[in-house]
Each structure stands twice: as C-alpha cells, then as structure tokens.
Amino acid sequence: MKADGNRFSLVRWWSVVLKEFLQLRRDRVTFAMMIGIPIMQLFLFGFAINADPKHLLTGVIAADQSEFTRSFLASMRNSDYFDLATTLVDEAAGREALAKGQLQFVVTIPPDFTRRLVRGEKPSLLVEADATDPAATGLAVASLSQLVQGVVNKDMKGALSPLAGGAGAGPSGAAPPFDVRIHKLYNPEGITQYNIIPGLMGTILTMTMVMMTGLAMTRERERGTMENLLATPVHPLEVMTGKIVPYIFIGLVQVTIILLMAFFVFHVPFVGSVWMVYVSALLFIVASLTVGITLSSLAQNQLQATQLTFFYFLPNILLSGFMFPFVGMPKWAQVIGNLLPMTYFNRLTRGILLKGNGWLELWPSIWPLMVFTVVVLGVALRFYRKTLD
Question: Are both 180 and 204 inside the same structural domain?
Fold first, then answer.
C-alpha cells in the first residue's frame, strides 16, 4: 500500500485538478478577473493608446489676412496635426490658453507679413507650443518644415517664383522665403524628465495609497479584528477617516521625497508654489485612499484586493496622459481618462512645476478631484456598511 501511495496516479491527479476548477467556479470574482479583465484591457488599451497624436488644438493670431497666409493656415489644417480651433485677440490670450492647457499651439502672423514677403525681407511666423509633454507635440513640430516647403511650392509661382529660391524643389536646397520660429514653452529643450517626474508622483501615490488601504482593511477582516469594531458604537465614517489619516501622513512624506529628488537629482524646475503642490497632493491622496477603502469593501480577501487594485491602477497609468499623450487618444478614451483622478493630478503637478500656474488656472483640475473624492467616499460608506452587516 505504501509503495502504491508513492506512485503518480492519474486518478488522484485529476481529482485535484477538478477540485481547483470547482474552487475557481465558486470564487466568481477571481474567475471573472482572470478571464474578463485581460480581454477588456486588451480592447480598451489597444484602441485607446496612440503615440502619434493628431488634431492638436491650435489658436491663431492672424494680423495679416492675405491669400498667402490663408493658404498657410489651410495647409496646417490639412496636415491633420493641427486643429485650428479658435481665433485669438493677442499674444496674452494665447499665452493664457497655453498655460491653462486649452491649446497645444498658438500661431502668430504679424500684420506686415505679406508685404515683407513680397519685398524679399524674409518675414517670420511665430509658432508657440506647449512642450510640457514633448511626445504630444514633437511630431507636429517636425511636420512644420515639410508644410512650409509645400506652401512655397504651391503658392510662390509666377512673379513670386524668384522669392521661392528653389525651396524644397531643387538640389540647391535653398532656404524658404520666410521663417517659422518655433518657441517650445515650459520645456524648451524637450527634457523627458520634466514630464515624467511629475507624472511619477501620481503613479507612486496611486499604487501605494490604494494598495495599502485596500490590503489593510481586508487583512483586518481575514484576521477577525473587524468583529471588534462591530462590538463598539463607532460610526463607519469615523472608522474610515480614522484609518486613512496615518496613510495621508505617509503620502505627504512620499511627496516630499519625490520633490527633493526631482529638484536635486533630476533638476526639474520649480516655477510655481511648492505649497500648491502639497495642497494638490493632499486632495489626490485622500481621493486615492477612498478608492482603496471602496475596493477593500468589494474584495473578500487580500488576493482579490490586490487584483482590484491592479485593475484600477493600470488605466490610471495608460489613460491619464502619463505614459502616452492624452490628446492623442480617441474621444471615448478621453472620457474614461477624465473619470480618473490621476489625469487631473498630472495636470496639476505639471502646471505648477513647469508653468507656474496659479489657483485660477488650476481650478479646472481641482474641482473634479474634490467631486471624485466626495462621490467615492459615499460609495465606500455604503459598501462598508454592508461589510459590517
């Protein structure tokens, strides 16, 4: 009998396999995560992520309304990279729109552009770009040189053909009869760390805050210490807020470490107020902690809490504009991204550190964080009461 017990038995092996399948069938949450989530994420991220953004919002300050300038603007529109969305009054309005993130480009055509062009004085067009995310505008900026050559070849004919100087047409490779001056605002050298480090702050806070609270709550339920709370008259809101306060302190310590490394190691500029960063981080930390509590109320064990955390974490990384340009995603994906708190926190940190934005420019990203926190806190209270029951 002992010798038979040491032999490999297909019958016993198949019994163990069936037992595992039955256990997975009973644990429907885990089974759904293992099958449904990968399929959903494959379709979602496969269609949403785009590293070559098109139709970038562009404002125009057109002080010269000649046929040539209209042809140049039409060429920009036809290139698919630029969406001439609005006409601006002056440069101040353009800078304000760029600071608020309402536009990616502002094109300024001076009033005497055509007259100087006809005289052969080589006038200049100014294109200002929001370079906080170099990947979002880099390809569009690179397309401008080809766009200029196309306009010259098309419109500089007849009496104006000597002004073309053979630009883009002949082997001489002569310069075009006008310049396109490109000003990359907020990150002129296109340094990747200026864009990545502020985004990493949101990534680290999302991962740690959501996971720590999610695991802490489910761990107490597994250990049975949650029953001690049932014997006390503590209100669910008191329990939740009391549990997240230590993690708020930990999150602020993380923010301090990241800011110090960003400044001294990666030399990220601090154009705005550091206190605005802390206020924004506080809102984001509270929002992330409420998400963690909600996920812990849905999870039955720590494994499910970890899986739900990963399911929440991945869209925040890929659809918030951290790894891929937000403006490059299709509209439906941007709608999903605008439901995620990390999207707004990325805009806040980049706006403060790189642009020096004040409260007026930051408010469009602050109030969604506040609304998100209140809504998720209400959901967390509801599920937490069910957990206690």
Answer: no
* CA gap 49, 310 in Å, rounded: 18
Nearest-angstrom CA–CA distance, 31 and 21: 10
Position 128 scores a pLDDT of 92
Measured CA to CA, the distance from residue 289 to residue 250 in angstroms comes to: 12
Whose tokens are 């549990």? That residue is: 243
Are 56 and 81 spatial neighbours (Cβ–Cβ below 8 Å)?
A: yes
Q: Would you give the distance in Å from CA 357 to the centre of its chain?
A: 18
Determine if the pTM surpasses 0.85: no
Say how many C-beta atoms besides its own lie within 10 A of residue 127's C-beta.
20
Mean pLDDT, the chain, whole residue set: 83
For residue 42, the model assigns a pLDDT of 83
C-alpha of 309 from chain center: 18
**342, 322 contact by CB (below 8 A):** yes
* 107 and 159 within one domain: yes
Per-residue DSSP letter, 175: P
- Torsion, Cα of 311, 315, 316, 317 (10° steps): 110
**158 lies in which domain range?**
56-185
Would the CA dihedral through 158, 162, 167, 168 be positive or negative? positive
Structure tokens at 340: 């995620």
